[in-house]
Amino acid sequence: MTAPIFPIAYYTLLEAVRNRMIWLVLVVVAASLGLGQFLHEIAITENAQIQSALLGAMLRFLAVFILAVFIITSMVRELNDKGSELILSLPIPRASYLAGKVLGFSGCALALAGIFAATLLIYAPPSQVALWGLSLFLELWIIEAFCLLCVFTFSQVVPALSATLAFYLLARSIAAFQLIAHGPLTPDESWSQQAINTIITAIAAVLPRLDTFTQTEWLAYHTGSWAALLPVATQSLIYVMLLGGAALFDLYRKNL
Amino acid sequence: MRERPLSTVPWPVLWLLMLGFCLQIAWHFSQPKPQARAEDLLPPPTIAALHLVSLGDPIPLARALMLNLQAFDTQPGIGLSYRQLDFAKVEGWLERILELDPRGQYPLMVASKVFGSVNEPSRQRRMFEFVYHQFLLDPDNRWPWLAHAAVMAKHRLHDLPLARKYARAIREHATGDNVPSWAKQMEIFILEDMNELESAKILLGGLLKSGKITDPGEMYFLMEELKRLERR
Asked: Which residues in chain B are closer than 8 Å to A252, comparing Cβ atoms?
């Protein structure tokens, strides 16, 4: 069952290399360095903090966007070209096909997180950048699993990409929603408020708290510790397991 | 394309899905709840940086920044008093917002009525001085907020010289037709409160002789006021 996983992962990685994703990544890195220099010129004080904070936030979002677009377009093209049908016509379990894809895209995510983190070495200490980079990889891992689930569910680029970006934005802001819902300015007595609070709590329970991942303050104020990575890694593992199960469920029910 | 029946999904996949779901719920509720944390108001960036961020359209950015500044006392999950804010930074933000959208009245309204209402005289004075300096840049459009500052200086701060300074600025600089007479005449009544009757009489007499008062009712009211001052 495990034998086909590595060739599938290898060809997935090869696709990333051949469609020149690396050039796009290098252009982003070059643009970030230019922007960093520009910020250095206009900032009056706390130059390094401003550069690392703004570039960190920008690179984190671009990493998610680039990876999501790559995975969704690659998978949809493979579905449309009947490439996946060809692979699955061989004696390969569907779970192995998905595992191979996850492994291949994880390689892309690792490369993306590594290159973007290396860019930030100019502005922040290596230990904090390493922490940030590993956390970014885990964040990308969740996004990757969600993209695969969306592709198997929608089979179209636009709905899959929209759902992924909506998921990402919601997972990053759900803690703020919870705080607002339970804040001192919202009356808890009314039934409508209680219903809204319950809905928000239910949504929060099935979403990963991405606001605790890849934090900018690690870069700007050097507050990150390796202990912070443990809950991030545990959450990633659990959530990828959940999304993997859901993606496999959809894939096994798909009439290919 | 019809989907295949549920029976085609292997049991391990269903177990994985259920296990992942249960673990996610357990993990979520085992983690500490989000904690509200008061964030400091950051110093405003340079106007050049804001113009860059606005992508050539500064008015929406000015409006968004204004709402953000105004709502800074209600951060997610936490309620702050405006008194807890650093007013030097507040002033900096208001100035930048006015630079982005000079025709906007919102920053001056917030400065004079919202931030100018905090129960701390030094901060109120700071906001009124901000309004005064901004008024001098566009008196005919910004006079209402300085008039409000004059009223607040008189009744809240009980600082009649400050109120007179603002009222005089309105009389001297806000000379447009859109500026109502009562605003231009504020200084006279403040002088009367200060017991500076001679100055009040001179001002009132000058106003009546200037020919700027054309409404008969207003003319009658001001003449009666002049007579009343002369009797005192």
From this structure: 4, 8-10, 13
Distances (CA, A) of A173 to A147, A183, A210, B79: 19, 15, 8, 19
Structure tokens, A54: 């703004």
Predicted structure pTM score: 0.71
Residues shown for chain B: 232
DSSP B112: I
* pLDDT surpassing 80 at residue A42: no
Tell me whether residue B144 is in a domain. no
Which residues, other chains included, contact A166 with Cβ-Cβ below 8 Å and sequence gap of 6+? none
Give me the residue from A185, A245, A254 closest to B16, CB to CB.
A245
Instruction: Tell me if B199 is assigned to some domain.
Output: yes
Is the ipTM, as predicted for this complex, more than 0.85?
no
> Which of A176, A183, A241 has its CB closest to that of B16?
A241
Total tally of structural domains belonging to chain A: 1
In a domain, B215, yes or no: yes
Q: Which residues of A194-230 are buried (b: 16+ CB within 10 A; e: fewer)?
A: eeeeeebbeebeebbbbebbbbbebbbeeebeeebbe
Which range of residues forms the domain containing residue A85?
Answer: 5-253
CA distance A62 to A71: 14
Domain assignment of residue B103, yes or no = no
Distance from CA of B184 to the nearest CA of A (A): 42
Q: Is B186 helix (H, G, I), strand (E, B) or coil?
A: helix
Q: How is residue A93 written in tokens?
A: 């379990």
How large a percentage of chain B has pLDDT more than 70?
A: 92
Q: Which structural domain range is residue B212 located in?
A: 195-232
- The DSSP 8-state label assigned to residue B116 in this structure reads G
Number of domains in chain B: 1
Does residue A204 belong to the interface with chain B, where contact is any CB pair within 8 Å? yes
